[in-house]
Specification:
By secondary structure, the protein is mainly α. The chain folds into two domains: 210 residues, Growth Hormone, Chain: A (Up-down Bundle), CATH 1.20.1250; 214 residues, Up-down Bundle (Growth Hormone, Chain: A), CATH 1.20.1250.20. It is built from 17 helices and no strands. Helix 4 runs antiparallel to helix 6 and helix 10 crosses helix 15. The longest helix is centred in the C-terminal third of the chain and has 33 residues. The chain is globular and about 65 Å long.
Length: 439
């Protein structure tokens, strides 16, 4: 790997670390403002919706300038979101001067967090798109393994960091350090002190962005008319879904991210209702699953070359059946082992799929546009599967029944994908379409 790749990894690590720590700080800020309980899940909702709503536009934005510059600009947007969250009182007061009604302060925090989501949505196509510009196809699986492993690590550390920063003892130390000397801006709570530190992490990420070189990749001039951008995105969407490789890899990655987001909440619910663990220990089980994903990603990067990516599809089926075993275990050693195994299977089969999809999208479309289509599908899946999960929880369905339904859905869907892929291969050698054997 080149030095530029490691610079990208460093920028991604600090940006993702800040994203995950900020969610904890935002939840603490809502609690500080006595926001209603239903407002907390909306943080995740608005963050995810940005990926869906902006999908027609962020791909064009990522391809309109060098990817390192795009990553720099979008990190600055995340910093703006942090500052809006920090000065929620001022923003709420300023709204009085507009025709808009004055919003409650906790709604202002939600809007500020959605600005961070806008930055993340625009950051993603550049982050993944630059890999296809910088590296040859044969290195994409390895690169994705590193990126996914590092991202999972940043998720784990980010959640831990966010929790540590809002700890009253840590917050007192931070506030006593006078983080912004000689300026009295009213930073006097743990959540606000945490947001200051998290903003500095985004600054560090932005500095690394400045050292990402221009790859020299240039694309056709991008539309500025929103109608044309939406029409162009629709063409890209149909192109990838009609392609024999694109449709398989899109189906797998879309399923993975929807299932992964649902599994986060399912593990917490299972820990509480089946294992009788408090929320703090349930969150640790989420971290255990993430460790498994990182392990699987590293193994895929080490042992699965791009041309053999589709050989790992049966792992997705096995993962679905393994998830159903959660309903049968209660001893903690077996719980840890099972969650690590589920996570490892997920990481092992999704990393090669990401690599093939990036390469195929780069061949058919462009780096930014293909990642935007991928993000659109994956985040639609997250919203739909979380809505279905919420509906099952709302009906007071037993958690073990939900686990069996969830695992069955994953296994059956992956079996359908494998069957569809075999039918494509019977008609035409899909590996030949991508030219994988040449690399």
């Amino acid at each position: 790997m080149t030095r530029s790749f490691y610079t990208i990894m460093a920028a991604q690590f600090f940006s993702s670390l800040a994203d995950n720590a900020l969610l904890i700080a935002a939840i603490a800020l809502l609690a500080q403002l006595s926001g209603p309980a239903w407002m907390t899940p909306l943080l995740k909702f608005f963050f995810t919706v940005s990926y869906v709503v902006l999908a027609p536009f962020v791909g064009a934005f990522a391809d309109a300038m060098p990817k390192g510059k795009v990553m720099y600009v979008t990190n600055l947007l995340k910093i703006v979101g942090c500052l809006m969250m920090l000065f929620y009182e001022w923003i709420s007061l300023l709204l009085v001067l507009t025709p808009l009604p004055r919003l409650p302060e906790y709604v202002t925090v939600l809007l500020a967090y959605s600005v961070v989501g806008l930055g993340a949505a625009a950051y993603s196509p550049a982050k993944y798109g630059i890999l296809t510009e910088l590296l040859p196809p044969k290195q994409l699986v390895v690169a994705n393994g590193w990126i996914e492993g590092l991202t999972v690590t940043s998720i784990i550390l980010g959640v831990l960091l966010g929790g540590a920063l809002i700890n009253p003892k840590v917050a007192r130390e931070l506030l006593s350090m006078d983080l912004i000397p000689s300026i009295d801006i009213g930073i006097d709570t743990p959540a606000e002190a945490a947001i200051i530190v998290i903003s500095l992490l985004y600054v560090i990420a932005a500095v690394f962005n400045l050292f990402i070189p221009d790859t020299g990749a240039r694309y056709r001039p991008q539309h500025v008319n929103p109608v044309l951008l939406v029409a162009d995105f629709w063409v890209c969407f149909r192109t990838l879904w009609r392609d024999k490789l694109g449709q398989i890899t899109l189906a797998v990655t879309t399923l993975f991210w929807g299932a992964g987001a649902t599994l986060q909440f399912l593990v917490l619910d299972w820990a509480e209702r089946h294992l009788h663990l408090p929320l703090s220990q349930g969150a640790i089980l989420q971290g255990v699953t993430a460790v498994g994903i990182a392990l699987g990603a590293v193994l895929a990067a080490r042992f699965i070359p791009l041309r053999k990516s589709f050989s790992i599809l049966p792992v997705g089926v096995a993962m679905g059946f393994t998830v159903m075993l959660m309903a049968l275990v209660s001893a903690m050693p077996m719980v840890y082992l099972l969650l690590i195994l589920v996570g490892a299977m997920a990481g092992f089969f999704v990393v090669p799929m990401n690599a093939v999809l990036q390469h195929r999208g780069h061949v058919l479309l462009s780096a930014g546009h293909s990642i935007a289509v991928q993000n659109f599908n994956e985040n639609i899946s997250i919203l739909v599967m979380l809505a279905l999960y919420s509906g099952m929880v709302g009906t007071r369905m037993p958690v073990n029944a939900i686990i069996v339904i969830f695992g069955s859905f994953v296994a059956i869907t992956m079996l359908a994908v494998i069957q569809f892929h075999r039918r494509n291969q019977h008609k035409e050698d899909s590996l030949h379409l991508i030219g994988i054997e040449k690399h």
